[in-house]
Amino acid sequence: MAKVNVRFFGVMRADSGIGNAEIDAACVGNMLDKINGLLEGKLSLTFADALIYINGVRCKSKKARLKDGDEVLFISPATVSAE
Questions:
Q1: Are strands 2-9 and 71-75 parallel, antiparallel or unpaired?
Q2: Could you confirm whether domain 2-81 is CATH 3.40.50.300?
Q3: pTM to 2 decimals?
Q4: pLDDT tens digits, residue range 65-81?
């Protein structure tokens, strides 16, 4: 398991009610499961719901491994297209 800092932006931030969170997870898919646990059924996030960046690099697989100290950004696709 790795301890990572997760940050939400745009609609993802508004809908989830989470700005920042520290999550212990081995991979992106595992991290999504833990985030959904924090949301307590208010919302359910999937890999396809957001653009996900790990340390500034676009993540293309929910199997991507995480390392201690990674910064994971969840960006709403609408946020990116509006820029």
A1: parallel
A2: no
A3: 0.88
A4: 999 999 999 998 865 54
